[in-house]
From TrEMBL:
Keywords: Cell membrane, Ion channel, Ion transport, Membrane, Sodium, Sodium channel, Sodium transport, Transmembrane, Transmembrane helix, Transport. The chain crosses the membrane at residues 44-67. It catalyses: Na(+)(in) = Na(+)(out). Gene3D superfamilies: Acid-sensing ion channels like domains (2.60.470.10), YojJ-like (1.10.287.770). This is SCNNA protein. It is found in: Cell membrane. Pfam families: ASC. It is a multi-pass membrane protein. GO terms for molecular function: ligand-gated sodium channel activity. The lineage of its organism: Eukaryota, Metazoa, Chordata, Craniata, Vertebrata. Coiled coil: none annotated.
Amino acid sequence: EGLIEFYGSFKEMFEFFCKNTTIHGTIRLVCSGRNRMKTAFWTLLLLASLGMLYWQFALMFSQFWAYPVVLTMSMDSEPKMFPAVTICNLDPSRFELVSEQLEQLERMAEESLTFLYGPKASARLSQLRDRNRDRDKDGAIRVQAWANLSSAGFRLSHNFSLVRMWDPRAGKKHSRVGFQLCNSTGGNCFYTSHPSGMDALLEWFRFHYMNVMAQLPPGLPQHQQHFQDLVYSCQYDGEPCRPSDHVHFHHPVFGSCYTFNSKGTDPFWAATKPGIPYGLSLILRAEQKEHLPLLSTVAGVKVMIHSHNQTPFLEHEGFHIRPGIATTIGIRQDQVNRLGGNYGRCTMDGADVAVELLYNNSYTLQACLHSCFQRAMVQRCGCGYFYYPLPAGARYCDYSRQPAWGHCFYQLYSRLRNHRLDCFQHCPKPCRESLYKVSAGTAKWPSAKSQDWVRQALRHQNGYNSSSSRRDIAKVTIFYRQLSSQAVHEAPLLSENLLLSSMGSQWSLWFGSSVLSVVEMLELLLDTLVLSLLFCLQRLRARRSPGGSSPTPN
């Protein structure tokens, strides 16, 4: 008792607290003891302040646990590499092994065009088909390594004919064109249709084209086009490009493609200065040989600027270069850095993503979505989509083996587009991502006065041979507008330090006190608990002693 002098009653403890605490207003509960109205007023005022304080605390914690972010922007002037650039000639190849099926498909397309728009619409397509047949007879596009194979066992199906559907409420001026798809039992049929007959015909042609191309053996070598057949001239920073600077691949729709600086590790591609003279300058063949005119309807060159070690998804990004035009493309790099964790899902390298990528490049959102969709196709439809890589042991879809794969595919793809497929839940965005903003300018090239000597120079240096005027060549220059890049960082809108600071501000606003005042309140609660315990012990001892009486707390 000499070391710990405790209170004799709850009233004594409360009066001591009110007179000595640093919390404002509590002393009015003691000094106004004779005026009950003032005591009641200050009691209600303190309780209201306490309620407002904890209401503000609740709002702060609810905002903190929502994990909002704020974007901060900074400029980065560090040396950088030139981005990867992919170009495609928009001229898909006609493989010898399936040339008969492709010719039959073009005849079916002629019939569909005649049905939709009359015989004049298909006359030009018939001439192109005859020209392609003559070129194939001359051996212009042959795959010698597989010449002994045959896909005669495959036949194009006539069960997917194009039909015109009229809307009785809109009249004959408004119609849709499409073809019907049914499940394996012939039920649950629906039409995949378009308001434009051209879009419907392209969709119909590509559907049959995928079935034809699925007959090619998996190990079939790609049709190799010589680099000089697409690129007449290539220079970067005033230096000619080297054979090791580009990688070739073939796209089933966009034709023969080349990617420059795909890895981004060669010092040759270091960006030294901004401006047109220090960029990538290309003179390209933009002539369309019309191998498959219903598959590729755009003449020119497809160009896409993207990050290194990234698969170029040309069907989603990129732009077209028009023949007879000089195009200058200025680029600026933006870096996006996401927080991840509680502030949003993102991945550093895709190692923590449940979807196994089917591409051999770095993780991107599109690569994950394509891989997820392809695996869903193999699992639910029994075969793979022709435009995406295959998982191990799977085969591409064709209606000779899976007659109802089209019905399964279009339903599954509709679910993906409407975000009802769980691929978007499994595929987070990258935590670090480089984006390239472009601005382009165009001019006629070569001009009427210079086209003769330009063509002569290309003919002697690159074997260029054409009598057309500006319709088969194009020039494109890609350069950094400025070497400084803009970095966008996500930062917590309400961090732990800011939360504590806001709580302290609210505490000072409603009670005019500090952290030590909080300690005083905790001390009051502890004293109340100890005093209650002491009184309970005294009562227990009084009951055990004969004739004793227990004290009553005030």
